Amino acid sequence: MIPFYFLNxxxxxxxxxxxxxxxxxxxxxxxxxxxxxVFYLLAPxxxxxxxxxxxxxxxxxxxxxxxxxxxxxxxxxxxWRVLFAHGWQAVLAEIVSGGMVFYGGLIGGLIVLLIYLKKxxxxxxxSFDIAAIALALGHAIGRLGCFSVGCCYGVPSRHGIxxxxxxxxxxxxxxxxxxxxxxxxxxxxxxxxxxLLRKSPRPGVVTKTYLxxxxxxxxxxxxxxxxxxxxxIGPFSVSQWISLLLLAALLVYELSKKLxxxxxxx
Length: 266
Description:
Layout: E1 13-16, E2 19-22, H1 23-42, H2 50-75, H3 80-85, H4 88-97, H5 102-119, H6 124-149, E3 156-161, H7 178-198, H8 205-221, E4 232-233, E5 236-237, H9 238-260
Antiparallel strand pairs: 1-2, 4-5
Helix pairs in contact: 1-2, 1-6, 2-5, 5-6, 6-7, 6-8, 7-8, 8-9
């Protein structure tokens, strides 16, 4: 049995006097603030002016939020008929208070960042490098928010932990703490990416390292996820298919880049 009793203080709600706040929301705000600050502070290292870094952070937040919510709603397609049967109020409530899908936020945030950087002719690869570091760190904090409410929980295991305060995961079954495992991995990944950036590699190396490492990790971790709401296509979850598509896209990009580069002859 893993001694995770010290995590019992991470509850769904935090009370401050008469004020009660959702821990998930607090962690999401903290994740954005930390990630945005890291992106802003690292901006000069890659030649990105800090005013533009500030604007980019705001746009990433909007694009990421829209993408994460959109992918969440897409994951609920099998339940749309039931949801709409309860009226538009139920639909709006689900949009506002429902969960978010990380890959949707990643895609949405990167799209708006790409548009902004292209429009104002700002450093592209370098900006994505520092965004990868900031994103890994913010995502690690966000997963603690998932743990607080019990979403994204793991499969039952005698080596797992109890989540007595969860409002989503089963309370009386030991579960693999997938949220905590992912949070620890992302913290380590953020550190590795930062150390890699300090070595001044070619622009884009940090980004590709992040995408490959996270895609592989997420694909494997999904086998230990116990929540079914994330959706499945055949043998794999939607997130696993996205991981495979991401890895395939990176492979195609690298191969096409090699084919476009002129061959060297003696």
